[in-house]
Amino acid sequence: MSGIPKCLNDDGIPFPSHLMLNCRMDIPYILDPVCASDGKTYSDVNDMARASCQKNIPLMPVQMGKCRFKEGLCKHASCRCLLMSGIPKCLNDDGIPFPSHLMLNCRMDIPYILDPVCASDGKTYANMEMLTATSCDENKPLAVRHKGRCHDSDETSKNVDPCKFVGCGRAECRLRNGVPKCIDGSGREHCNMLMIMIGAPVCASDGTTYGNMGSLAAASCRKGTRLTVVRKGECNKR
């Protein structure tokens, strides 16, 4: 009845509510916890069904197992978030994950704050919020290896990908003729980058000293020119 389970009498009619009989349901002693759409963990689906009847609200199972709100990466999500198989997902107002085709279950705000972290996929993310959104977008669990940027032995070589040293928020960094560009969902390019401000100064191919590889990558985008590292350290020092 409107998504709410109710017990019927012998005539197939729901018991009057005041008799308190329409929710008398036998619940087997089988512990198989389920996380329901009200954000609570029930011992099993039968327990959830009885609660739905008693509270007179429709309840749906969100996932098997205990509810894991604000655990793991969900601590860094701006939406009401549930950790599902280690992957953060946003929930709708009914406490249920958005259908994947609506592209709403990963709508998370990413602040322009530089606090780099090295993740379990070997990539550097500008901050925990960026890592959380990526885990959701790519539907894969991610964990933090350590604070700071992932270390690359060839980070100042000519062949290093400058996109490793910048973040583009919800856009994606791609190379255009060797120049890093942020590409949004509509294909538009911009240089509104989060620079990972870690690392030593480098002397670039334009004769300019940049504080680190993040600064070099952002300058390359703004100038529309491919920049490579000539050597580590300042240009005017040998």
Automatic annotation (TrEMBL):
Gene Ontology cellular component list: extracellular region
Domain of life from the UniProt record = Eukaryota
The alphabetized UniProt keywords are: Disulfide bond, Protease inhibitor, Serine protease inhibitor
Q: Fetch the InterPro entries from UniProt.
A: Kazal_dom, Kazal_dom_sf, Prot_Inhib_GrowthFact_Antg
A Gene Ontology biological process annotation? cell differentiation
SUPFAM superfamilies, sorted = Kazal-type serine protease inhibitors (SSF100895)
The signal peptide stretch is none
Residue ranges of domain Kazal-like in the record: 17-69, 100-152, 176-237
One family name in Pfam for this protein: Kazal_2
List each coiled-coil range: none
* Keyword Disulfide bond on entry: yes
Q: List the protein's name.
A: Agrin
Which organism is this entry from? Aceria tosichella (wheat curl mite)
The coding gene here is: Agrn_4
